[in-house]
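User:
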Amino acid sequence: MKPTEHFAAKWGHLASRKCGKNKARDVRLTIALPALMAAAVLSIALPAAALAGPASNAVKFFYVPEVRFEADAKYRDRFTEPVTKLFDLNDKASKNNPDEVACLDFDPGLDAQDFDQKTLTKTLKLAETVNGDTAEVTAKFSLFPEGDDSKREMVWSLKKVDGKWKIADITSKTSNWTLSALECQADKAPQ
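Assistant: Predicted structure:
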């Protein structure tokens, strides 16, 4: 018997009255049970990053396919208060003292200046917690292939504004700072 004939015979048996009192239920269980089992296995086996959602995507934008500098004015629409106040002060400091490094002399999303993009992309893990119109996305990654001091844990705080996730703040769990709490004086050169 060919496999297709075997399937047809099996299906014919399931569809016939010989299959039991509740044939429709038997057919639904035959089809639904494997799908339910696969879903259960995947929910256990997949890492948190695979289950990340739209809030995580707002953060992922700054890491891959390439790192983007959060304070860059062209990304300002992706942020909201309180961190936008710091970015505005940073812009003013850059304008007032163009020959000096402004308040943000590092990449806030990396908690660093230097990194290896390939390593960061390979090690990036995102996990999100959503509570209504607020969310926290934790980004864990390594800056370089070796060294414990290259490991980072960043917590991004987000708010939903007009249906879009916007970044309100960034906290480094590694170095114990929060971006909106950093000082920036636009009228003085950094010290």
